[in-house]
Amino acid sequence: MSLTARATHRRREQSGETDWELYEKIDDNPGQSVYGLAKLTGWTPGRVHGAVMRLVEKGLVRTERSMRGGRSVLLVAPKEWQEYFTPEELDEFKQL
Q: Higher confidence at residue 34 or residue 4?
């Protein structure tokens, strides 16, 4: 494997670790902004934003734009367990 391929592979492994670590913070602190999550983790807002976007793509978190102090902020929260099921499946759960 070439040096470039090894470096790319390692970077992907690290991003998965970053994503999981951030997901745990989001789960513990739902509704935080990207900036707030950056302060909690000690990471840059850019690193947090990148990880949030990967988590959104994977369907693990949802984001919402909001205004705070005249500024637009991106709020992040984990998806609720109900969001993973169709209305029909939820009705089945209620009937159990």
A: 34
Could you identify the residue written with the tokens 């637009």?
72
| Contact in structure between 26 and 58 (CB atoms under 8 Å) | no
**pLDDT, tens digit, 9 for 90 and up, residues 72-84:** 999 999 988 777 6
CA atoms in the 13 A half-sphere facing the CB of 82 = 7
Report the 10 Å Cβ neighbour count for 68. 10
Q: What domains, with CATH codes, occur in the chain?
A: 3-95 (1.10.10.10)
| CA–CA separation, 53 and 23 (whole Å) | 11
**Distance separating alpha carbons of residues 43 and 20, to the nearest angstrom:** 14
